[in-house]
Amino acid sequence: MSNAKIKVTLIKSVNGRLANHKACVKGLGLRRINHTVEVIDTPENRGMINKAYYLLRVEG
What we know:
This protein has a single domain (3-57), classed as CATH 3.30.1390.20. The chain has helices at residues 19-27, 43-51; strands at 5-10, 36-40, 56-59. The chain is of the alpha+beta class. Keywords: Ribonucleoprotein, Ribosomal protein. GO terms for molecular function: structural constituent of ribosome. Belongs to the universal ribosomal protein uL30 family. Residues 6-55 form the Large ribosomal subunit protein uL30-like ferredoxin-like fold domain.
């Protein structure tokens, strides 16, 4: 099992967004604009990233 990491950065505000998109951003551990976290590359995390892709920058 691989423990590959993905760097995810919040680049847009979650104000006025759909509730489930806000929940995905929170689930990834992002708190504020320009906050970056490293998450493990799992299908669950990929799904949250894909749901709110337009709010995020993804590296790696």
